[in-house]
Amino acid sequence: MDSSENHGDLIERIRELEAKVEHLRVSRRVLMNLVSKLEEEKCSLITRLEKEKHRLEISNAKYARALWEKNRMIVALEGRLRQTGIYSQEFPNVVNSDLPRAGC
Fold first, then answer.
1. Which of 24, 38, 59, 82 fits a disulfide with 87 by CB distance 3.0 to 4.6 angstroms?
2. Alpha helices, DSSP H only, in the chain?
3. How many other C-beta atoms can be found within 10 angstroms of the C-beta atom of residue 97?
4. Do 99 and 91 contact (CB within 8 A), yes or no?
5. Residues 61 and 53: beta-carbon distance below 8 Å
């Protein structure tokens, strides 16, 4: 009887292990699906961020060109003011007509 009980115990143990293996296979599939989903989301996020970066680079370049053009215009206007004598060397941001007059 000892051998038949041992045989029955071994068969039961084999069934338990087979069930555990099946559970592990299901768990592995679930985990692989999750990893795949995360990879897709990561790729999507990277693509979206690269597009946003490109858009911001273009926007920044436009802004820098606009600032450069405004600065160029300011320098040109200051040059014209210097030529007309209205530009003040002491107060470069104020024209002579804006300065207080002595004795008034």
1. 82
2. 2-84
3. 8
4. yes
5. no
Cα–Cα dist 65/53, whole Å: 18
**pLDDT digit string (tens) for 46-69?**
999 999 999 999 999 999 999 999
Query: What is the sign of the dihedral through the CA atoms of 78, 83, 87 and 89?
Result: positive
Distance CA 4, CA 76 (A): 106
Q: Rounded to a whole number, what is the distance in angstroms from the first to the last CA of the chain?
A: 128
**What is residue 1's DSSP assignment?**
-
Model confidence pLDDT, tens digit, residues 60-94: 999 999 999 999 999 999 999 888 887 666 555 65
The two structure tokens encoding residue 59: 């926007």
